[in-house]
Amino acid sequence: MARSCGHCGRTIEEKEYGVVNLKDGQCVCKDCADQTRILYPYRYVKELRESTIAKEYTKLKNEAIYGMTVGTNRIDPLTEMTLEEFKSALEESQKAAEAQAALYDRAKAVIEADHVRKYYINIGSSEKPKYNKRKVYGVFGKVIHGELITGAEVVVSHKDRDYSAKIWELQDWDGTGHTGMPVGKATAGKLVNMLFEQEMNFVFPGDTLIVR
Ligand SMILES: [Zn+2]
Q: Which listed residue, 34, 132, 185, 201, has the most CB atoms within 10 A of its CB?
């Protein structure tokens, strides 16, 4: 039986990405769920888990950590809500978003930077890797206000001057895997990786990036 989003009513495709199953058996689509992330973000809990791969590779058999690996559990607070509770959470979140908008006068989006990662792009094959001179940098962070889109220009201000760069690819990083999901936009409360085709050595943890 086809399901539909309990909030916007849109038909949900089979295996659609980011659908949230609520406590009462109803569900909401990713777009609707994302509007509440400003107040109800995903939480991540690290735990030690048994791993057969780790067992093969761990040499220090006397260590307590033998055969274990660190896994990530993602906790979604929305799954603890009924549809009614989700609707009031959404209203509450919209008010919080308005308050943030008043705080960040006219900014289209505001992101708090976490860390910067440099990517080496392999233009060869997996057997014969060949690394390009082209630089790709990922800036991880959290959207704290507004809507961030691919192609947006982010600005960070330091004492000496303003620095800016254009987002080449935007990835939703709210996942438990090792890769992000490329997306066209991300709203407040989402963890993102912004990829840039230029060096991003002017971004530091805790910096505020602004899209005007
Ligand atoms: Zn929806």
A: 34
Could you tell me the distance, in angstroms and rounded to a whole number, from the CA of residue 179 to the centre of ligand 1? 25
**CATH 3.20.10.10 given to domain 105-211:** no
- What secondary structure letter does DSSP report for 183? E
Q: Band of the pLDDT at 52, cuts 50, 70, 90?
A: confident
Rounded-to-integer distance, Cα 44 and Cα 73, Å:
6
Q: Where are the CATH 2.40.30.10 domain residues in the chain? A: 105-211
Output the CA 134–ligand 1 centroid distance in Å. 39
* DSSP strands (E only) in the chain: 3-4, 11-12, 20-21, 27-28, 43-50, 68-75, 109-122, 131-149, 153-157, 162-166, 169-172, 181-183, 185-187, 191-196, 208-211
User: 176 CA distance to ligand 1 centroid (A)?
Assistant: 23
